[in-house]
């Protein structure tokens, strides 16, 4: 059962206060079916209002006004809850999605700095999958040589061949969340391997990518390392060119998390306000939508 949280809402339902959490879309989600077995309070009305705190943490105050009719006269009780627990939301969503994956691997694709590693690790933990990183596997294949060194010593073509070989091996595996290198999308053969699993594109605005990369430096990302200028400007300039060159290769992914749309949905003016947990949750929602379309299953 869901009720929209966009405005002050009045509900007229019988609920047990321990049975709901809020969804990032701004709706209330009941964790269990509501039934008389749970001995709920006879709830006459309830209201809730999303609050924006100065530290950007979203919380929801849920006021419940309950009239108990079994006592002589009416008793009014009002409580406030803070049910916005992202860990719980993530856990619930991954429990919903996990059985429908049938062990299929999840491939995260996106530009450098889009958060494939950060989000991939969260997804792997929540889905009880193993996290892997295609760049790390390439480095291992080349005797522990870093990606930057591989580019310097052998060139990009050599790196791309190793990347494809690593992907071929991964495509035979089950139960992995894989953070891929940003350029993996350019070779059609790589898509053939990724189609064994489910691919999800983290679509992040260039400004945010450049900010993140400027913060950590370009040493480990050889394709961004030549330009002059300050770290943000050179990252932004080079990322724009790469994005242009890659065209719409990322759109081959089965599902997409668009950070711009997600921020708007959650009421943020800037994608920088989105936490990795927000993004991981949205990734699971998008994977679920893909699976529903693919298999016709529904969790609702
Ligand atoms: N949602 C986020 N908000 C802020 N910084 C992030 C977010 N996701 C990732 N980062 C930071 O951006 C940088 C690149 O992230 P990473 O996960 O390594 O990206 P990728 O694997 O796609 O290259 C890291 O320093 C990481 O901490
Ligand atoms: O976009 C690219 O072509 C690359 C992205 C890098 O991975 P990340 O996306 O993990 O930074 C790495 O594979 C290599 O530096 C090339």
Protein architecture, described:
There is one protein chain. The protein is α/β, with parallel strands linked by helices and 300 residues long. It has 2 domains: 17-84, no CATH class; 87-295, 3-Layer(aba) Sandwich (Rossmann fold), CATH 3.40.50.300. The protein has helices at residues 86-101, 116-127, 134-141, 147-154, 156-170, 188-194, 206-216, 231-246, 259-265, 276-295; strands at 20-23, 27-30, 43-52, 58-68, 75-81, 106-109, 130-133, 176-179, 198-203, 255-258. The strands form 3 sheets. It has a 5-stranded parallel beta sheet. The protein is globular, with a radius of gyration of 23 Å. The N and C termini lie close together (9 Å). Residues 1-83 have low confidence and may be disordered. Bound molecules: adenosine-5'-diphosphate (ADP) and shikimate-3-phosphate. Shikimate-3-phosphate binds next to loops.
């Amino acid at each position: 059962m869901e009720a929209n949280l966009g405005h002050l809402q009045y509900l007229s339902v019988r609920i047990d206060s321990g049975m709901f959490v809020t969804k990032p879309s701004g709706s209330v989600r009941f964790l269990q079916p509501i039934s008389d077995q749970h001995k709920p309070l006879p709830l006459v009305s309830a209201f809730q209002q999303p609050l924006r705190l100065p530290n950007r943490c979203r919380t929801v105050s849920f006021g419940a006004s309950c009239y108990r009719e079994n006592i002589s006269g009416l008793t009014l009780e009002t409580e406030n809850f803070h049910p916005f627990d992202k860990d719980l939301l993530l856990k619930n969503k991954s429990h919903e999605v996990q059985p429908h994956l049938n062990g299929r691997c999840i491939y995260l694709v996106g530009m450098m700095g889009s958060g494939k590693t950060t989000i991939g690790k969260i997804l792997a933990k929540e889905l009880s999958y193993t996290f892997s990183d295609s760049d790390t596997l390439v480095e291992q294949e080349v005797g522990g040589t870093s990606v930057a060194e591989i580019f310097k010593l052998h060139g990009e073509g050599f790196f791309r061949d190793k990347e494809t070989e690593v992907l071929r091996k991964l495509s035979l595996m089950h139960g992995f969340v894989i953070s891929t290198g940003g350029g993996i999308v350019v070779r059609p053969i790589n898509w053939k391997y990724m189609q064994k699993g489910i691919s999800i594109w983290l679509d992040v605005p260039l400004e945010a990518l450049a900010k993140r990369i400027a913060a950590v430096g370009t040493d480990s990302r050889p394709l961004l390392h030549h330009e002059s200028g300050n770290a943000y400007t050179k990252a932004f300039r080079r990322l724009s060119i790469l994005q242009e060159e890659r065209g719409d290769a990322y759109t081959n992914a089965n599902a997409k998390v668009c950070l711009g749309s997600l921020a708007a949905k959650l009421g943020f003016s800037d994608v920088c306000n989105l936490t990795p947990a927000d993004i991981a949750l949205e990734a699971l929602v998008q994977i679920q939508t893909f699976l529903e379309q693919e298999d016709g299953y529904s969790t609702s």
